Description:
binds cobalamin, elongated, alpha+beta, binds iron/sulfur cluster, about 30% helix, four-stranded antiparallel sheet
Amino acid sequence: MVSISLIKERALAIGFDLVGVAPVTTGQDLEFSKQWVDRGFGGEMEYLKNPKREDPRRVLPSARSVICAGLIYNTPRPYSTEACRGANAGAGGAQPHPAPASGAAATAEPDRPGGPFSRDDIPRAWISRYAWGHDYHEVMRAKLEKLRAAIEALAPQVETRVYVDTGPVVERALARYSGIGWMGKNTCLINEEKGSWFFLGVVLTSLELRPDMPAPDRCGTCTRCLEACPTGALVEPYVMDASRCIAYFTIELNGSIPREFRPAVGSNVFGCDICQDVCPWNSRCSGQLPVASGQLRVASSQRRSVAVTSLAEFQPLEVSVSAATHSTPSPPAPLPQGEGGRRPGEGSVQSPTRSFSLFNPPLEALASFAAEDFGRAFARSPIKRAKYRGWLRNLCVAIGNSGDRRFVPWLEKAARHPHPVIREHAEWALERIAREEQKEGSGAPRRVAS
Ligand code: B12
Ligand code: SF4
Ligand code: SF4
């Protein structure tokens, strides 16, 4: 009999922050998952219909236990709900959101010379926290392979399969039985000590291991995430309609972002962090934490801070664009012709480059990426999943929501793009900026409601 404590020891030594064991049978959850897809909550994510997801033994018939591992990706940077002219402060974007619990204070922001939240009035974009660094699939996969090797050294006859969002396995359904976290009302797995900014990986194994106790639900009466979600994607506690989620629109969806949701996308150009930003379990300071009984307790005697990682791979990447295309002030950038090539004379390989961090980057800098910049900068980043076309589409929405007319030349170029989805989003953004200007002219407030 292999000692589970030895396996856990190896997992922690490899660098995982959390590890637990789940039984392979979590029937009720997997049934929920199927019904969830049947109700259309998965939108166009066809891979969620794979019947193998209904039982992990369809991918490994000998599976008896699942080792679930978590890896923190959080770095000590402000949240999107705090950032200046960021995801949730853009003109006409999302409605104001409640501040994170107990006024999570701004930490020194090392990326910007101006210091924390420098009030430079530059329209900024928000890239989801999980996508600031290297692609987690690669980072997790390497660690999971080490764990698999360690297990095989302890039990040579064992059969294993490892997954990190790389196969037909409902990872959270398994992980929530492994004791490493409970499923929050925002549908994320949350760990009482470390918060929810962690990735999951699973090792299906033929070993019969004693499962850990599931973690108790600590959401209590809190409903911050449901109230903060700008698109109403959390249709009820613990249930997300992914076809309304900003992460789905900006990462998974290939076609048009539905018009009615575009204002609420705010400045989110890749993913969305809002329902985690507002969660008190991700608060940096001590404060009021909900408990299962539904009462609030003041944790002043139990100061806690959400876990952060020092892994180099998850620190915000510095990306560069040619200075010739990254002109300040506007017009911000040449929009690529066709699928993105620069026009003669616009930028060159020899041009000096300017670099910036993916933490709350200037919208202008992102808009200055030609297709080749995109391919080069994001080759090892999860952002490549959006593809350059999706990137341009998302930028059109964020630019429209910025209400900043300096982007009009960029949008006019985008409105001539060969791809109809980009053209349509650019036209929408131009109209939105024009409407806002009209309102300004009439003395109405600058922000528009829809
Ligand atoms: C599709 C998908 C998405 C979709 C849909 C998200 C969703 N909530 O379902 C979109 C694109 C919106 C998305 C967004 C994000 N995702 Co995602 N996503 C996935 C993926 C590929 C499948 C998830 C899935 O099956 N959803 C269907 C629902 C029904 O399943 P579930 O939420 O996982 O819930 C299970 C259980 O918790 C339970 N359950 C849930 N509700 C209920 C209710 C009842 C009554 C019962 C009985 C059971 C039950 O059963 C469910 C499954 O059977 C997984 C990887 C994987 N292969 O599992 C990553 C994964 C869930 N995503 C992850 C991450 C990091 C994100 C984002 C943070 C990225 C971002 N910032 O943009 C956001 C978070 C948004 C959020 N609030 O969840 C991590 C989650 C880590 C964590 N700590 O929870 C995962 C596990 C990837 C990984 N390997 O790390 N994601
Ligand atoms: S990720 Fe954003 S859009 Fe999606 S449920 Fe959370 S707050 Fe809502
Ligand atoms: S914000 Fe509140 S309800 Fe939502 S997941 Fe966090 S503790 Fe639970």
